[in-house]
Amino acid sequence: MGIPVSINVNGRAVDADVDPRTLLVDFIRTHCRLTGTHVGCDTAQCGACTVHVDGRAVKSCNLLAAQANGATVLTIEGLAAANGDMHPMQAAFKECHGLQCGFCTPGMVMSACELSGKLTNPTDEQIRDALDGNICRCTGYHNIVKAVKSGLSNMQK
Amino acid sequence: MHPFELHKAASAGDAAALIVGKADGKYLAGGQSLIAAMKLRLNAPSDLIDLAAASDLKGIKSDGKTVTIGAMTTHADVAASADVQKAIPALAALAGDIGDRQIRNVGTIGGALANNDPAADYPAAVLGLGATVHTNKRAIHADEFFRGMYETALESGELITAVSFPVPQRAAYLKFKNPASRFAIIGVLAAQTPAGARVAVTGGGSGVFRVADMERALAANWSAAAITHVKVPASGLSSDLHGSAEYRAHLVGVLAQRAVAAAA
Fold first, then answer.
1. In chain B, where are the structural domains located?
2. Could you say which of A19, A62, A130 has the minimum Cβ distance to residue B35?
3. What's the rounded Cα separation, in Å, for the pair B171 and B263?
4. pLDDT tens digit sequence for A97-120
5. Architecture of the domain whose range is B1-53
6. For chain B, give me the number of helices (H) and strands (E)?
7. Domain boundaries for CATH 1.10.150.120 within chain A
8. Among candidates A42, A40, A1, A47, which has minimal Cα distance to A20?
9. Angle at B116 between CA B114 and CA B120, to 5 degrees
10. Residue to substitute from B46, B73, B97, B101, interface A, most A β-carbons within 10 A
């Protein structure tokens, strides 16, 4: 039996009838056709599926779409400016080469963006602590930490 | 995931009414353990009552003697609460080290307590601080609430509405965590509370428990030295790939001493 959900995704109102079992990540990827949000582990560990729900970073593989009913969701596709200019955090990941295979990157970037306003001039240690919900299976953390530091600094400008 | 029906509750009262008559109904709080368990088909409720819109279950109140936290308050909100940081800094720190940041943004105190995972952090806080769990039917003291692995005193359909913590003179929580899951291999909360010294241990295997010998020693002398020679038996603790029962027993002693020192 379908249930109605109404979710604002990247500024667009999306209404749909979904199976109650539908996970938010499946709603985003399959229904909204926004495949930038990745499914890595599907067990709420790796954080590749991280999106913002009402401004908070959450793991969309561990949330029902129905739990986000009425909420505002921001995915990696919603970060860049309308003219295509990259978001400062995306630009920092590119500049610092904060990725190896890139699979974890959407989740890393969304998780990092949520830190803006919470961490001011963070140390490497604070950034590593704050990224506790995101796993880079390539273990490319060094440049990710550099990218997050640079991106947070640029977001304050 | 097996099929289920989803119902949205607008309030605590609404939720309690909605669950009546459901074959195997469960309340859905943050769902950070429940959804994962349902995906693995370890849990298959017939109905979920979503509490997200029940705003009467959210929020933190502090009057200097007691901190009361609504059941649907997230770990992130408890960790960031100036009231909790001021009254019971150990509780704010504990909440801020549950799982990971994304989990803390969704997971709730009520959900964590109803689930009573044997390696979860909140049970150590509730038992160690001598808190009271409030439900839609009654108030349950921590000493009566926890009944072993994933078992609590909650009856079918009973809903946790809030948890009230008496403000301790001093308290600290230390956990030795599994680096992958971030659950406690052993976590110890030591506190000097209005009701005396309390030491609560999580991660031991079959649910949170108190260490009476340590509490007696600490009541006479609140210092790490006072519990150095308290032997914690390995019997009853679990052995798994993360550590043997003997190793866990040793951790209880070490972490309890560190917690007492940190709470000095």
1. 1-53, 170-262
2. A62
3. 5
4. 999 999 999 999 999 999 998 998
5. 2-Layer Sandwich (3.30)
6. 11, 12
7. 88-156
8. A1
9. 130
10. B101
Closest residue in A to B3 (Cα–Cα) = A21
pLDDT digits (tens, 9 = 90+) for A78-99: 999 999 999 999 999 999 999 9
pLDDT band at A1 (very low <50, low <70, confident <90, very high): low
The distance of B146 to chain A (nearest Cα, Å) reads 26
Q: How near does any CA of chain B get to the CA of A94, in Å?
A: 24
| Whole-complex ipTM | 0.96
Q: Chains A, B: CB contacts under 8 A, how many?
A: 71
Distance from CA of A157 to the nearest CA of B (A): 25
pLDDT tens for residues A59-82? 999 999 999 999 999 999 999 999
**Phi, psi (5° rounding) for residue B164?**
-110, 130
Cross-chain residue pair B102–A20, CB shorter than 8 Å: no
Which CATH class, in words, describes the domain spanning A3-78? Answer: alpha beta
Which class is domain B170-262? alpha beta
Task: Specify the DSSP element, H or E, that contains B50.
Answer: strand B47-50
CB nearest A47 (choices: B1, B36, B102): B102
Q: In this structure, which topology does domain A88-156 adopt according to CATH?
A: DNA polymerase; domain 1 (1.10.150)
Residues of chain A with CATH 3.10.20.30: 3-78
